[in-house]
Design goal:
Number of strands: 8
Structural class: alpha+beta
Largest sheet: 4 strands, antiparallel
Shape: globular
Length: 180
């Protein structure tokens, strides 16, 4: 008897205008389906997918990495997978409630490919407010995100490969999952 597919949220790291010439979202959905992902849906043009997969998280990760390599994308473009329950818990925790309501595009949720070490956060002096929720960083940038380049470099240096989504995208992905 075949395994029942689990739903995964697939977030691509390092996707953007340079990679869109190699892989459109429509092409990504089609290739994902050929690789065994069921009913893949993308959200906006920034590497967000919700899809079923009848296999372990590791098998889903490997299958999606194969899909991406098939497009000839650079090695930095990696899939970061999460189960919908994790997104729902992040939304429910809402550690930046005021910022999420008033300026959701100035909030970020960082998803890590590995297990980050957050020890360096004790030395962070702002102006950003940072919360750790289930191994994710939730950041209220308090300003234009571009003005927080120093913090973003620290996250990359100390936490390893990651991808971030703003609060609106997090909520929309969680809603997409709830609709499945």
């Amino acid at each position: 008897m075949p395994a029942t597919p689990s739903t995964y949220v697939i977030l691509l790291r390092a996707i953007g205008p340079a990679t869109h010439g190699l892989m459109s979202m429509a092409q990504w959905r089609e290739a994902a389906e050929r690789a065994g992902f069921e009913a893949p849906e993308t959200l906006v043009n920034t590497g967000n997918m919700v899809a079923g997969f009848a296999g372990s998280p590791r098998a889903a990760q490997e299958a999606m990495a194969g899909v991406l390599r098939g497009f000839g994308l650079p090695p930095g473009v990696i899939p970061v997978l999460r189960r919908p329950a994790v997104l729902h818990r992040l939304v429910k925790a809402d550690p930046v409630a005021e910022a999420a309501a008033q300026r959701p595009n100035q909030t970020g949720v960082y998803f890590f490919a590995g297990r980050p070490d957050f020890g360096w956060l004790a030395q962070h002096e702002g102006p950003e407010t940072i919360h750790v929720v289930e191994g994710h960083l939730v950041v209220d940038f308090t300003q234009d995100v571009a003005r927080s380049a120093r913090l973003i470099r620290q996250i990359d240096r100390h936490c390893g490969p990651n991808t971030a989504r703003n609060w609106n995208t997090l909520r929309r992905l969680a809603d997409r999952c709830a609709g499945r």
